[in-house]
């Protein structure tokens, strides 16, 4: 199982997703185009693609000229039937790659939040094993419209499109299910200044918030991570090659 991981900024660890990939024996290749502009050369070297979050927006092509190519790459992986996972910025780029609208500075959401499954979400394998309303971590102000043909899987009070599927196994989550309690603890240090600008008193409230929500969010994150990893089809590339022969 070969998985390409695209990082869009530093300090964006995989959290429970890394654990689920390790359990599956995945061979991981990291790409850091925010440093060197390099992306996977095509769709045939990897069985799945993960695109993580970042401080840039999904239309920030002037500062990050690799973004259009990354959105197209996510679309190509989707059309090939391979598993794709976009988290936060990654979800926004997945939406962009499928012709949806990116909405910048739409609504700030930060911290642990309740997310509600849609009726479609309740029967989708990505969210299997979760309660109808589950707890996870949010950190974004941008959002997106739902791509044509996509299925909304989860929604929130402030932002409608929290998770969606397009194609066989391409998923976008606006929320950071990979942000385990350990990841969030590190973020409070690594991004202290940014957090204080957004939520001036959040760090003072953090210990109580973590005690209330972090354990539930950890369960959510590992459940979603394992569910998505199970959708990786290592035979997809061979199927595509046969079909194109």
What does this molecule look like?
This protein is α/β, with parallel strands linked by helices and 245 residues long. The chain has one domain: Rossmann fold, CATH 3.40.50. The chain is 38% helix and 22% strand. It contains nine helices and eleven strands. It has helices at 16-23, 33-36, 67-79, 89-97, 119-122, 181-190, 192-198, 202-230, 236-244; strands at residues 2-6, 27-31, 48-51, 83-87, 102-103, 109-117, 133-140, 143-144, 151-155, 163-166, 170-173. Helix 3 (67-79) links the parallel strand 3 (48-51) and strand 4 (83-87). The longest helix has 29 residues, at 202-230. The protein is globular.
Instruction: Sketch the topology as an H/E string, one letter per element.
Output: EHEHEHEHEEHEEEEEHHHH
User: What share of the residues lie within helices?
Assistant: 25-40%
Q: Give the C-alpha Rg.
A: 17 Å
The largest sheet has its strands arranged as 2-1-3-4-11-10-9-6-7
The unreliable regions are 241-245
The general outline is: globular
- CATH evolutionary superfamily: Class I glutamine amidotransferase (GATase) domain
CATH class: Alpha Beta
The count of helical stretches stands at 9
Q: Classify the secondary structure makeup into a structural class.
A: alpha/beta
User: Please, how many domains?
Assistant: 1
Largest sheet: 9 strands, mixed
Classify the fold: give the CATH topology: Rossmann fold
């Amino acid at each position: 199982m070969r998985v390409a991981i695209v990082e869009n900024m530093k300090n964006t660890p995989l959290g429970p997703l890394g654990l689920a990939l390790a359990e599956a024996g995945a061979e991981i290749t990291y790409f850091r185009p925010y440093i060197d502009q390099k992306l996977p050369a095509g769709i045939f070297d990897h069985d799945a693609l993960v695109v993580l979050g970042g401080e840039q927006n999904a239309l920030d092509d002037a500062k990050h000229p690799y973004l259009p190519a990354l959105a197209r790459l996510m679309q190509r992986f989707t059309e090939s039937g391979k598993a794709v996972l976009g988290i936060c910025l990654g979800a926004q780029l997945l939406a962009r790659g499928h012709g949806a609208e990116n909405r910048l500075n739409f609504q700030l959401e930060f911290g642990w939040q309740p997310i509600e499954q849609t009726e479609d979400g309740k029967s989708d394998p990505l969210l299997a094993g979760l309660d109808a309303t589950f707890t996870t971590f949010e950190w974004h102000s941008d959002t997106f419209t739902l791509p044509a043909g996509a299925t909304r899987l989860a929604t929130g009070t402030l932002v409608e499109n929290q998770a969606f599927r397009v194609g066989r196994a391409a998923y976008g989550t606006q929320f950071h299910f990979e942000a385990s309690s350990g990841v969030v603890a590190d973020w409070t240090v690594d991004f202290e200044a940014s957090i204080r600008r957004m939520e001036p008193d959040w760090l003072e409230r953090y210990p109580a918030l973590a005690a209330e929500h972090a354990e539930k969010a950890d369960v959510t994150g590992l459940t979603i991570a394992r569910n998505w990893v199970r959708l990786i089809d290592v035979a997809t590339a061979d199927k595509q090659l046969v079909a194109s022969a």
